[in-house]
Amino acid sequence: MQIIFDDYKSKIKGLVLVPVFEKGDICPFLKKEDTHGFISKAVKADKFEGKEGQICVVFLSDLRVVLFGAGNKSKVTKVSLQKLGGQLASIAKPLQKEKVYIALDSTGVEMPETEILAQVAFGFGLGAYSFDVYKQKKEDDIQISEVILLGKNPEEAQEQFEPLAAILDGVYETRDLVSEPSNMMTPSEFVDVAESIKIKNFDTDVVDVKQMKKLGMNLVLGVGQGSIHEPYLLVVKYMKGKKGAAPLLLVGKGVCFDSGGISLKPGKDMGDMKYDMAGAAAVLGTMISIAKMGLKTNVVAVMPLVENMPSGTALKPGDVVQSMSGKTVEILNTDAEGRLILGDAVWYGQEKFKPDTVIDMATLTGVMTYSLGTEYAGLFTDDEKLAKDLEQASQETVMDHLWRLPLHANYNKLINSDIADMANLASSPEAGSSTAAHFIGRFIQPGVKWAHLDIASKAWTKRDLPCSPKGATGFGVQLLTRYILNTRVS
Ligand code: BES
Ligand code: ZN
Ligand code: ZN
Fold it and tell me: What are the φ and ψ backbone dihedral angles of 154, each rounded to 5 degrees?
């Protein structure tokens, strides 16, 4: 789908979406088209006042006009405009038109029209996503191929939209990766996708099984040893910041399918576990966004990619494995595999790239749905500034929202083991998301700032949301890109 900005001079035909603010005017351009006053008659008949979500449909000769209530203009923010764009996308999709116009009158809104249009376009892009590669094309199924936002200064709006288009590309790539079934999106396929991305300064590197053995990366190897698909550790470097300045390290959980291993998961909803690589996909999406924007920053992403399967060669409960850091781990439950691969991955990233900050993102614990539901991902960190910066970035996004959860020293004790340096399952189920976070924390080196984001309840949505249709949300791309933009650009 192309997103285009144009002025009112071009002749428009077909579907026009018209956001109208409360006590606002209907786009004057449309009034000109409305020679018989149909719009004002319909507005009166439907008691359309521009209240948020109100809809009024009018047919003019060549135009099908959908007026959409955009709410109170004094409450408009960038995020509310994105949501509005997403709502417009969900109206437009079922109407099955190839071309969709958006025309709005922003008089009285305290934001330049170009910025308003760029934000609405971004939200529309987020909401218009669909994943239908495995559906046969039906002839009468029409998809939106162009959305055209009308305004007085289209070139400037296009310019404002440029960085948002880069974020949109990152979100789309993440959603595509996460939506793919695990028979298609194996660890090696994930690597191939990353290697096929050609953007300036976006450099990939791959650590394979042979190299992992040399490095002693036995936690990644251990989780992967039950599958016929070999594990990989994918690295993406983007070093366009100050020479020699410590990078930010992003680490994403990339379990391409999590059956639970020998501690097999129950059958119900097991298929959901194709999205257990959403952390890795979001980290990759973020790298795409920042590279497309050409930001002056140093960021490295590390993505351990594995499939967690039961088999004669799989890890077993009770096994002890030595990590790359030298620390030993007692495996009490092979379904707690995410923390294992992340332990090796954060260690590798720190040894190799000497970052000042590590942020890991993972669909780590199912109980996140109980603690925070689907509104927030869990944020775990002991660093106040990092917490504040991530929360700030989160608030600048339409749905990448965070809620901070505790890292208490007593929770850390729960993952001590009788036989090894630590266990991958706590001795008590209490605070399960915190004990999982602490496990990763044990692989963070002194002086390195660290935050862990548990996105188990945010990576996938079971219902349509304005800026995220049912399925993969792309959670994390907007959040991390905003965080980098706000705090790490020189
Ligand atoms: N990938 C799962 C967590 C998950 C569950 C993510 C549902 C998204 C939706 C993770 O590897 C896992 O299985 N965690 C266990 C941990 C337990 C064994 C301590 C869990 O959540 O049950
Ligand atoms: Zn698991
Ligand atoms: Zn998992």
Answer: -60, -35
Both tokens assigned to 319: 């096994």
Q: Which ligand is nearest to the CA of 368?
A: 1
**Separation of CA 234 and ligand 1 centre (Å):** 22
Task: Please give the share of the chain, as a percent, with pLDDT higher than 70.
Answer: 100
Encode 92-128: b = buried (16+ Cβ within 10 Å), e = exposed: bbeeebebbbbbbbbeebeeebbbbbbbbbbbbbbbb
pLDDT for res 242 = 97
Q: Cβ(335) to ligand 1 under 6 A? A: yes
Q: How far is CA 283 from the centre of its chain?
A: 8
* Ligand located closest to 424 CA: 1
Q: Indicate whether 441 pLDDT > 80.
A: yes
CA of 161 to the centre of ligand 3 (A): 36
Catalytic positions, please? 265, 339
Distance of alpha carbon 450 from alpha carbon 357, whole angstroms: 6
CB-ligand 1 contact for 310 (6 Å cutoff): no
- Which residues is 471 bridged to in the sheet? 461
From the CA of 56, how far away is ligand 2's center (Å)?
48
H or E element, residue 473: none
pLDDT of 485 over the 80 cut? yes
Does ligand 1 have an atom closer than 6 angstroms to the CB of 338? yes
Confidence at 22, pLDDT banded by 50, 70, 90: very high
102 pLDDT tier (thresholds 50, 70, 90): very high
pLDDT of residue 10: 79
Contact residues for 7 (Cβ-Cβ < 8 A; gap 6+): 150, 151, 152, 153, 154
The pair phi, psi for residue 388, each rounded to 5°, is -65, -45
